[in-house]
Amino acid sequence: MSGRGPDRWRRAGCCSGPRDEVVQVDLFGDGRIIGLVALNQIFEQLYALGRTPDASVQDELVKMVAAKNYVPPKVEREYAVGLLREYTKFCAKKNKQKV
Predict the structure, then answer these.
(1) Looking at residue 20, what is its pLDDT?
(2) What is the Cα–Cα distance from 98 to 92, expressed in whole angstroms?
(3) N or C: which end of the chain has fewer CB atoms below 10 A?
(4) Residue 71 included in any domain
């Protein structure tokens, strides 16, 4: 086989390195769990850049998440709120570890 089709994507490391981690999160706060690819990596990157968890980072969070995940346009605002909430928790945990 020429390496095309679904089998190609099942092989580990078939593309540019290891696969991104999928994080399961209650993004809307209503008990529905959503799996998001690379969420921890995105949070780590923003944290390393010194981005604080406030409203100014919401649009950036959505854009970064949408680069690896489908974000339905109808719920983009809800994603922004949920992502900011999760990033705030992430930052609090990281800051607590520093102490």
Answers:
(1) 80
(2) 10
(3) C
(4) yes
